[in-house]
Structure formats: structure tokens, C-alpha cells
Amino acid sequence: QVQLAESGGGLVQAGGSLRLSCVASGRTDSIRGMGWFRQAPGKEREFLAAVSWSTGRTDYAGSVEGRFTISRDNAKNCAYLQMNNLKPEDPAVYYCARQSGGTFWFPKRTAGDYDSWGQGTQVTVSS
């Protein structure tokens, strides 16, 4: 079992930046990759970015590529999401999630491909 805890959300002006963190504890050896998703009220959970835990290779949704950067620090068991140039459409609860299983990492963009989730952190953008 792995536990995930996000932090770093908050209120930011449009055009500003935030850095989200996701700390993993427990069975961290089970992590194949980490993903970031968000969910706004009344909307489905949306994939944002994923990172391979072993190689650092990344994958991004087109809607955030170039503005958001995912990274990981294996020594700290932590994944990050650097969000720049935040826009009025970015407010949501942001979640990190674990991708496990398999020998090699392949980027996954569906929430069902992730089997452990954090509690989420709220991001609000003021115009």
C-alpha cells in the first residue's frame, strides 16, 4: 500500500505560478509512475501529466503542455507539478496518483490506470 499526500495549492492571480508537491509513503517501491489529474466541479477528472519513476520520462496533456512541468525526486519520494501562467480555466482540485505494475513504464492518461490517489489540493485562480 502506498499513501500519497498533495500540497502546494492555493489562490493565485491569473498569470501566476504554483508548485504542487506529492509525497509518497509506504510501499514506494511499487511506484512505476506518477500522474497529476484535476477535477473541476461538474466535470470529469482530467489527466494533466505523468512521469516515469525510474527514468523521469514525461507525458503531458495538450491543454497544459508548455505551461505545466512534472518532475520527481526519487530520494524524497516526491513528485511535483510546476504550473506557470495559470489561467481562469485552471481552478480545480488537483490530485496525484500512482501507476503501478508492469516491467516498463508506459504513459497512461486514464484515471482507471492509476490505483492510489491523494486527497487532492485546491487551486484557485483569480482574474
Topology:
Blueprint: E1 2-7, E2 10-13, E3 18-26, E4 33-39, E5 46-52, E6 58-60, E7 68-73, E8 78-83, E9 92-99, E10 116-117, E11 121-126
Parallel strand pairs: 2-11
Antiparallel strand pairs: 1-3, 3-8, 4-5, 4-9, 5-6, 7-8, 9-10, 9-11
Describe the structure.
It is a single chain. The N and C termini lie far apart (40 Å). This protein is 0% helix and 50% strand. The chain has 127 residues and is mainly beta. It has strands at 2-7, 10-13, 18-26, 33-39, 46-52, 58-60, 68-73, 78-83, 92-99, 116-117, 121-126. The strands form two sheets. Strands 2, 4, 5, 6, 9, 10 and 11 form a seven-stranded mixed beta sheet that branches. The protein has a four-stranded antiparallel beta sheet with strand order 1-3-8-7, with no helix packed on it. The chain is built from no helices and eleven strands.
How confident overall, as mean pLDDT?
Answer: 96
Order of helices and strands: EEEEEEEEEEE
Q: How many strand elements?
A: 11
Number of helices: 0
Give the termini distance in whole angstroms: 40 Å
The portion of residues forming beta strands comes to over 45%
Concise synopsis of the structure shown:
The protein is mostly beta strands.
